[in-house]
Amino acid sequence: MADILTPALGESVTEATIAKWTKKVGDAVKKDELLVELETDKVSLEVVAPADGVLGAINAAEGDTVVPGTVLGSVTEGGAAAAAAPAPAKAAKAEAKAAPAAAASSIDITVPVMGESVAEGSMGKWLKKSGDAVKKDELLVEIETDKVAVEVSAPADGVLTIAADEGATVTPGQKIGSISGSGAAASAPAAAAPAPAAAPANTGSAQVSGGKNDTLSPAVQRVVAENNLDPKTIAATGPKGNITKADAIAAIGQAAPAPAAAAAPSAPRAVGPREERVKMTRLRQTIARRLKESQNTAAQLTTFNEVDMTNVMALRAQYKEVFEKRHGVKLGFMSFFTKAVVAALHEIPAVNAEIDGTDIIYKNHYDIGVAVGTEKGLVVPVLRDADTLSLAGIEKGIGALGKAARDGALTMDQLQGGTFTITNGGTYGSLMSTPILNAPQSGILGMHNIVQRPMAINGEVKIRPMMYLALSYDHRIVDGKEAVTFLVRIKELLEDPQRALLDL
Fold first, then answer.
1. Measured between alpha carbons, how far is 209 from 198 in angstroms, rounded to an integer?
2. Residue 321, pLDDT above cutoff 60
3. Residues 213-216: contacts with CB within 8 Å, 24+ apart?
4. Residue range 99-156, pLDDT digits in tens
5. How far is residue 311's CA from residue 455's CA, in Å, rounded to a whole number?
6. How far is Cα 205 from Cα 255, in angstroms, rounded to an integer?
7. What's the CA gap between 177 and 187, in Å, rounded?
8. Strand 460-474 relative to strand 372-374, pairing
9. What span, in angstroms and rounded, lies between the C-alpha atoms of 117 and 14?
10. Which residues are catalytic?
11. For residue 157, pLDDT beyond 50
12. What angle (nearest 5°) sits at the alpha carbon of residue 465, between those of residues 459 and 467?
């Protein structure tokens, strides 16, 4: 007997709601066949059969709340599966007879899994038209998500039929087209798209107790709260008359015309003769939403210091040529700053921690996010285990992440799990800034432009290359004393690099 377990739900997601079972107890199942859909406040997850057999038990009913590791049910392995299988087999035969011969040679093009916590994307421009011949592995379309662009290639040689237009919102596993081996490919583009829309047949009472949201799944609650929807007015299409996330999203456009009349006009304002309206990309929308959420959630405060870069610049100038010959990479300032940050995080662990409900999670690993500006917007790839890397290793790692960011080739793993972030506005000439936290992290360090300024050194005025440092931190977890000590520690290590060698 094999247990069906709730999988890990993603960073900062602690529970999910059972949305729908696709099988009943006693049904035959195949290994990796979809059994149950889970809904979290961020993404919908699919749980598949762990083995061939018969669905022996369902322990969590639709609408129940579960946590990672919960046993949802079990599959009885072995010969019992064969006894339960004839009916589906006959049905499959009947469907196969009814299906046209051309469909048998057709291969669906589906949306790939787009990474943890990514539930949907937007179709980019198709590089081919319906009816065009394509080769296997030929790039057909890019799907833009909140974080990365995902390329979809042809699964086989054949003729393309497009089922999802440019700009359409799609989800993992959704059919967006097909490849037909025969010449007659283009007759069915409309068949795949309308299926999700024919929902409002069941207009049940949505199981809302007294108009409250307490029986809604976390994902539905979030959509309802963010858009001020009344659950009693939403047409429910889910199991047992429950409201699904799709129902709530569909209701946004139909929600309460009365308040709209009282508020500002619902139509977008007219564009002037020297103005241009451009739709925000998903990445830009996500940047805007996450930064505002960070401001609204954390008690953000910024503290400043300045660092004399004389010694670091002299060390860099002295060894940059031999360093590049030896390691094949240029010696920059980011490696010095990363080393100093890791040392300071060791000393002040609260800056490397995060708040989870009423708990604090202290992280004994040092995965440093490095903010990178690209044509599409700001991304923060993560340099893993920075505490184990040499200066050369840090420079190579940051260089590779920066190139991948600019090429749009970052993976989901490279964008998640950072414990602290460094952002270098100095490359663009910034003198000072107050960076916004990259939630759920508790600290972000801002580097700035190096400027020659007069400084008082041992009673004399001397011109020194100075840089302002800014540490934004979550005051709920980091006290002012800790924040100031953290910045002073970085200043000491940069102004006297030999301290790092002596572990001082």
1. 26
2. yes
3. 215/63, 215/242, 216/242, 216/243
4. 444 444 688 888 887 665 567 788 888 888 888 888 888 888 888 776 667 788 888 8
5. 15
6. 17
7. 12
8. unpaired
9. 13
10. 475, 479
11. yes
12. 105
Asked which of 146-150, 442-446, 473-477 is least confident by mean pLDDT, the reply is: 146-150
| Whole-angstrom distance, CA of residue 433 vs CA of residue 439 | 18
State the amino acid at position 184 in one-letter form. A
In three-state secondary structure terms, 9 is: coil
DSSP designation for 132: -
Angle at 91 between CA 87 and CA 94, to 5 degrees: 140
Query: Residue written as tokens 């602290």?
Result: 420
**Pair of tokens at residue 194:** 């309308």
CA-only gyration radius of the chain, Å: 28
Contacts of 79 (CB under 8 A, 6+ apart): none
Structure tokens at 158: 């054949």
Whether 352 and 368 have beta carbons less than 8 Å apart is answered as: no
Residue 427 confidence (pLDDT): 82
For residue 121, the 8-state DSSP code is E
For the chain, give the number of residues.
Answer: 504
Q: What are phi and psi of 464, to 5 degrees?
A: -130, 150
Give dist(CA 422, CA 445) in Å, integer: 5
* Residue-by-residue DSSP string for 189-200: HHHHSSGGG--T
Q: For residue 116, how far is the Cα from the chain centroid? A: 6
Higher per-residue pLDDT: 106 or 12: 106
Question: Which parts of 364-459 are beta strand (E)?
Answer: 368-370, 372-374, 377-379, 382-383, 420-424, 443-447, 451-457
Note the pLDDT tens digit of each residue in 19-63: 888 888 888 888 888 888 887 765 677 888 888 888 888 988 888
Which residues face 466 on adjacent strands? 308, 451
Contact 109, 179 (CB under 8 A): yes
CA dist 422 and 198 (Å) reads 48
pLDDT confidence of 259, banded at 50, 70, 90? very low
Determine the distance from the C-alpha atom of residue 9 to the mean position of all C-alpha atoms in its chain, rounded to a whole number: 13
Residue 374 · residue 287 · CB < 8 Å:
no
For 36-77, give the secondary structure using H, E and C. Answer: EEEECCCCEEEEECCCCEEEEEECCCCCCEECCCCEEEEEEC
| 122 in Cβ contact with 167 (< 8 Å) | yes
Does the pTM of the predicted model rise above 0.70?
Answer: no
Per-residue model confidence (pLDDT) at position 89: 44
